[in-house]
Structures are given as structure tokens and as C-alpha cells.
Amino acid sequence: MNRILPEVEGAEPEGYSNIDEANARIRQLEKELSGLKSANSLSSDEVNELKSEINRLKKYEEQQHSFEQRVKEFDENVVFNDKAPDISEYQKYYEAIDPDNAASIYKDVMKDLQYRAAIKKQATMYAKMDPAKAASVLQTMSGDLDLVASILDNMTESKSAAILAEMTPETAAQITTKMTAK
Q1: What is the Cα–Cα distance from 121 to 154, expressed in whole angstroms?
Q2: pLDDT tens digits, 156-166
Q3: Does the pTM of the predicted model rise above 0.85?
Q4: Quick count: other Cβ atoms within 10 Å of Cβ 98?
Q5: Residues 86, 88, 94, 99: is their CA dihedral positive or negative?
Q6: Spatial distance between the Cα atoms of 125 and 142, rounded to a whole number of angstroms
């Protein structure tokens, strides 16, 4: 038979003395291959499960971020709402909430308290002045009518009315509009 068939290089089995040994080695390699395929399949399944879990958790992560934004907006709206209690009431409360959020809001609260204190001080100062002189000074501040309206809002009605009466009708009307909008 060897004379009929052409010689093929590498056709001689190396390391095997008979066909039974070669078949045994083939079966062993097939078992190893089957085990590796099974392990690969398990790893692939595990990877797919982990990817699925990552996608599921991403929704929660996005929801958590959205929730944190809503909490921050809510906290700010509660403090700075027109119908909210006096801002000093919140000072103690915000010292007890989420530290990062509380620090940010507390900083804003303290800035607002300082601003309100400065406005009250200025209102007291202008209320003590002659209405014509106070009106003259406040009218020159027409670039910041919100500030002028805040100052007049912190005076008694009679004092602010006397000052407004000394202003030009246009300026008095603009300031009154600002005061009403508050």
C-alpha cells in the first residue's frame, strides 16, 4: 500500500507506537476541547449576565443623579420661595441635612441674611433723612430699582410714601411696580 500512495511529509505519527495510542490521545484532546468550550460558554454567559446587570444598574445611577438634583432644587425652593418662613428659620434645619447640599444652601442663606441686614440698615438710614434728600439719592440709584424697592419696603409706609412723593412720577411708578412684584 505504501507503494501505491504518495509519500506525505509529516504523515508519520510522532510519539505514538500504534493506532490505539493515537485514538486515546484524540479522545483526551476532544475531552479537553469540550471542557474548554464549556468553560468558555460559562464565561460568556457570566459576561452577558454582568453586562445585563451593568445596564440595569445604570438606570438606577441615572435615577439617583436625577433624584439628587430634585432634592437640591426642592431644598432651594423651600428656602427661597415667596411663601417660605423667614430664612433664619432654615439655618438650623440645613445644618442637619446632607452636608454638601446643606453647605451650598447654608452659604446662600448666610449671604441672603447679610444682604437683608444691609438693606434694613440702609432703610433705617434713609428713613432718618429728610424725604426730599432721601428721594434725591435713591432716584440716582435708578440703575438698581430692585435695591431701591427693597430699601423702601423695609421702611414704614409713611416714610416710604414721603420719599416716593419727592421723586419724579416715572421713577416712583417704576419703584412702586418693583415693590408690588415682590
Answers
A1: 9
A2: 999 999 999 99
A3: no
A4: 14
A5: positive
A6: 18
CB atoms closer than 10 angstroms to residue 175: 25
Asked whether residue 51 carries a pLDDT value surpassing 60, the answer given is: yes
Give the 3-state secondary structure of residue 121: helix
Cell of 134: 432721601
Any idea how long the chain is? Answer: 182
Flag whether pLDDT at 151 surpasses 70.
Answer: yes
Measured CA to CA, the distance from residue 85 to residue 87 in angstroms comes to 6
Structure confidence by residue, pLDDT tens digits, 69-121: 888 888 777 767 777 766 666 666 666 677 777 778 778 888 988 999 999 99
User: At residue 10, what are phi and psi to the nearest 5 degrees?
Assistant: 75, 10
Cα separation, 115 vs 103, whole angstroms: 18
Alpha-carbon gap, residue 11 to 104, rounded angstroms:
80
With beta carbons less than 8 A apart as the criterion, state whether 90 and 77 touch: no
Which residue shows C-alpha cell 447654608?
106
Taking the C-alpha atoms of residue 44 and residue 85, their distance in angstroms, rounded to an integer, is: 59
